[in-house]
Structure formats: C-alpha cells, structure tokens
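Review box. Two proteins, two foldings.
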Amino acid sequence: MVAVFLLGGVLGTGFGVALGFLAFPYVFPPPAAMDQLTEADAETLVATGTFIHANPADPIHFGSGGVEVYESVVFLQNDFKVGPGPDFHVYLVPSAEVRASGDVKDMMFVDLGKLRAFEGSQRYEIPAGVNLKDYPSVVIWCQQFGVLISPADLAFES
C-alpha cells in the first residue's frame, strides 16, 4: 500500500512539473519587446512581409504582424505577435510560401537567434555574407519540438 502511495506521489509530481513547464509561457509571458532600428540599420530596405497563421486548424501555433529585412538586420515590427511557447527562433529560409513544418526541416536555413519576446518590435542581426535574395521567407520556428509557428513571405524591393 505504501509503495502504491509513493509511486502515485512520484508520478503526480512528475506530471505536475511537466505541465508547469508547458503552461508557464502561457500564464506568465514575458513583456513585449521594444527594439528600435538604428539609422545605420534602416539605410537599405531589402524586403517586407507579414507573418501569418499558416494552419488555421491549429489554435496554438500562430503569428501576425510585419517584418522588414534590411541589408544587415531583420526587424519584427511593433505589431508582431506569436502564440507563446518554448525555444522559438527566427530563421531565414531559402523557400517561398512555407506553410508546414516539413517545408523547413530539411532546409539550409539561417538561424538569426532565439526569439526574445512573443510580441513587439525586435531586431536580429544577419550574418555577413548572406545573400538575402536566396531567402524569400522569414519564419518563427520552435526548435524544441521542430514545429513551424508562423511564416512570412518576403516581397523584395526593386
């Protein structure tokens, strides 16, 4: 009887901790970001886009808001927002019209870094030598689970 009680306590504690880790970003999201572009960043606008809800049947993985790509910076605009989750990253992807996780998994993407906030303006440095014309999409990707959160198709300036 004691063994059953202890096993139940261990399993219950493990389940509670796991649930807490998954629910934490939803219950206590970080504050909105408020990054600004510098004059040097904003000299040459290369492309613009809008994050979309790629799969409307999925209520958890969504995004919205604008993105601007400059020669050395990707800038998520003030209206940027994604549903919270763990280990989100900003990727430049060499494929247009990304709509599913499988569209990204085997790509040679450029990881610009971990998403700092689930909403608000944010800037991400583009590594030197990246030919932006080869990357027609910016996506928010969950590295922990290998899931597409939100893509943005880029329209290049002429």
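Next protein.
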Amino acid sequence: MWNEYAQALFTAFALSGIAFGIGKAAIMLGERAIERRHGTGGVREVIARRAKLETRLDARKEQRAAELRKVDEETRDLLRRRQALERQLRDAQQSGDHFVRLVGEELAGTPCYIAQVVNKYVGSAGQQKQHAFIDSSWALPQTMEVWARTMPVARAEIERRYPPAFGYVVLRLQDARTGKRTDDDAPVAKAS
C-alpha cells in the first residue's frame, strides 16, 4: 500500500515537472513569435543597454550633484565675504577717519611735514558746492604727509601736485617731528 502511494506521488511530481517544462517552452516560443511578428527581436539587448545607460546616468547625476554642492558652497563663501567687505566699507565711511595723502618719497633722513589743504572752489565746510571735476570732500581740510628736505620745498611740492590756480589752498604746514608751523611761525593764508 505504501508503495502504491509513493508511486502515485512520484507520478504526480513527474507529471507536474513535465507540465511546467511544457508551459515554460510554450511561453518562450510565444515570446519569440511575438518578437518576430512585431519586429522587437533585440528587446533584451535594448533593455540591457538601457540598464547600463541608466547606471551611467545615475553616476553622472551624483557627480553633477557633488559639483553643484561645491559651487554652492563657494557661492555662499563669496556672499559672506562680500557682506563682510560691504560692512567694512560702511564702517569706514561712517568712522569719520580721513585719508592721508602722501606727497614725495619717504627717504631716510628726509623730514616729514603735515599739511592741511582745501579747495576754495568746492566751498567751506559750512557751505559745500558741487564742482564738475573736484570731489566735494575737498571742502573739508585734507591731510597730507609731505616728504621734502625743507618746508619751502614741501610747499612747492604741494603746489606742484595741487596747483593754487585750480583753487587748492594750503591752510597749514608744519614739521611732523617738532610741530613747528611754516618757516616764520605765521599761519598760512586761509581759503577765500
């Protein structure tokens, strides 16, 4: 009796295996017939090529994303730097510090003279006028460091660079070391 059950079970497994093989063969033959009929013979190759292309595109996407993150970080750094520079510029404009203009060359043994120069065409500090060629800051005394052998030479250098014919007037000229004003200790002519 057990023999009959085992034989029946073996026959059932064998028949199911044969049926599975026949079904698989029918599916493969049907796929081939459909591929031949509709002209899709290389579908498997196309799918394989597209899968490779997809993996390469994903790799390129990752590479581009990394480059984009790098550029984005550089842009943020540049924006932070720009904001810092703009803040420094605002602070410098609001600080009230004046520029010191240099006239002559600083050589060993050459004395330094401090001069205050304005431009009479721009106006005085109380009444500034617009001038086409001269900055309005010249209405206020501009500080200069003049490197020259003597005070008259310093005055000549200032007047050469900032000619009185164009409205520049030396308000004060003094030795930087001693604080002594002009050759005869008399104040220099004021702007008119």
